[in-house]
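Q: Fold this one first, please.
A: Sequence and structure below.
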Amino acid sequence: MPYLTTPGRAERRPRPAGPARASAVLVALGSALALTTACSGPGGVDLGKDWKGSGTFALARVDGLVTVVGINPDQARAESLAVVPQQADDTDAISPHIVRLADGRWLLTVPRKGGKPDRRYEINRTEHTLDGLTGDERLRRILPGRSLVAEVAGLPDARSADGAAASTVLVKEPAHWTTRRELKVPGTVDFAASDPASDTVCLGSTPNGGDGTTISVAGLADGKITPVPAPSGLEVKDLLCPSGRPVVVGSPAKAKTGDIKVTLKRTAVGAVVTVDGGRVDATAATDHSVVVAAAVGNDTELVEVDAANGKELHRARIKGLSASLSLTSTSAGWLVYAEKTVTRVDLTTGRSKQFDLPGTLLDS
């Protein structure tokens, strides 16, 4: 997904951060406060209990509070499970972020005002709580790899060797959250993607004072950054990184109107996916295919193409869904997230079922 950037980020040199499970007392107090806030008084959040059936998680704003939402794809149900502790220095200018690591852990970060480090929590599915983690980084997108994790800055916060502005990528050890190395990518990171099956991340950045998108592939284990030729005549909409190989998704400069057409062309280093006839809203990749959610009129078309040869495999139309925000693959089908709803789609049969989120989607 495109990386969300924000103005006003102060330059600073990142420092190593180590994880620390918040003390039992603090965690208990934080969880109790969240539950008390959620269940009492006007604007309280009704919490569900389907922790076991939740195959994936999202963040939503429910009655003014940021909550962890459990999604049960089999039952087509979404419910609030935990309220994120609210603090006076939380900021609404940047959306909180949730991500699943390769080891199965779910982490969420909450941005704060005044350049303060993000607050971090780990979802404790056993105790049904949010466990606090220490850290001193802010406004960074977490990209999970196979054994390492990359944290990518949203705006330039460093300088390259020639003095030009650059964005830093911190390579972290997820077991204890220490920094192994710091990488620098020229310009502003607009797109960032990873695959938990690979310790490689794919980045798309805008050169300083230039047009177009520069694609880079960064090896987390060795720190090597390799520039990749960007496709010409394509307006880049998204970037995927299956198995550590960049897949650039975009629309032609002069897009046509009519039926949505998705084409995939293999390159020496990855692939280029061109979507014509509709607006690209969300993309995702599996081991063998690429899936695109494109808006056409008041509907959304879900198109799956073979990652090896570009052959169209499946297509399904979701009527009445004029915009989608993200895609998630589950054993029960694809989940298409919108602002207030989730639609489960079986691409093989074309059948879909829509269900409501308990609030407004923030991240998934």
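Q: Good. Now the second chain.
A: Here it is, same layout.
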Amino acid sequence: MGRHGWKTGARRWRFTALLGVGLAALALVLTLSAMPDSSGSTAGTTADGDKVWGSPTIPTGEPAAELGWGFTHTEHSADEGVDASVERARKALAGPRLPQVQHLMGWGSDNPEPSPGRYQFGEMDARMDFIRATKSTPVVTLCCAPDWMKGGEPGVENVDWDKLEVPPEPEHFKDFAKLAATVAKRYPDVRHFIVWNEFKGFWNDAEERWDYEGYTKLYNLVYRELKKVDEDILVGGPYLVMDSLDPRQSENASDELKGPWGSADQRVLDAFDYWNKNKAGADFVVVDGSSYTADDELIPDEFAATRKFTDVSRWVRERSGGLPLWWAEYYVEPGDHNDNRDDWPETRRVAVQAAGMMAMARGGTSTAFYWNPQKRGKSCSGCLWTSTELDDGGRPLPMLDLIERFAKEFPPGTRYEDITPATEGAPVSVLADDKALLVVNTADRTTKVTVDGEKLTLGPYEVHWARR
């Protein structure tokens, strides 16, 4: 989708307890970095990338393939900034313990292997430290690849961030799989890995379709290498963007997966089917996408368009034979040319996000990650917390409250009940199980409605929770 920024370098937060470890390692790093290397500068790198980092708490027993509702760390996150604000964010996230995703390279992580066999995991280590401090479940997305794996020059000085989304060349697929195994050994508390991100770079120009053969080959190599490290590690893909087209568009439109929101792009479904048929294995299946079309249209409107999440979820689960379904990203508000989503008031944004999550849940989704658009300034539409770069930052925002409550009330395994509002035609969306009820006012006006025997007066775009 081309919507993601990345981080090339920043001061990272560390626990005071790790200070001694860092000082003790400094002499070793300096010694190793001074060694000559014919494949580019290796300053600041080490040769022991697979050495366990920190003091991880390794879960006992088999990991669950369904994690519930969480979020993804992006370029800026809560592991850096003013100490008090960082600690405030850590405490906020330590309560509900939402699962958290970090990418291998980009989105807050530097090049992990600048030259063959030479590693620098400093920024990723910092993110893992933060996730561990919240005692949450860490997930790693294995994207993206070092430059030397994709035709670039090796060396710490040769990172071309403009080519972040270029995949490894086929002759380096095995090298990338070995890097994935190195990551698994370094962070043994990570039991869940997603292979690549949105099929980035895997496009067949000649045939104007996805290069699903290339992606599947890479996926299978990574899958097998991770299972060699530990059979209990869980691996999933293909992380395809489930694009949809305007209902009036016929070219590339699927006749099989469609609804009032439009039609799925058949080229995406073909790519999914190929991966699904030829994969070496999968413990869960991963997709992402938006409720709006490829042309940024919300059809019939922003709330009704979320039905796409239900229909796509059901299609994927049926196609995959019932594998646990993950949405690695999901979007309900189109962005501008810079991918900013600042046009909606936060009440409307939260209400439509709630409707989208409800739609995914109805379709059988058991894990979904909100892509946190964190920024450094005071203004941050849709962010989960106020910027930890601010003196009073790290405070929860409405979107975090929504995800935490949703995760608490509707965990994996929830059996949903069919609740129909008694007030005919009321502009509300409802999701319920035997203990909790969620009602969203989909109108920008006050609405009176009776749901589950309770008379409610809901403010514009109000998200209402109740116990049953």
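Q: Anything worth noting on the second one?
A: The CA atoms of residues 151 and 163 lie 10 Å apart.
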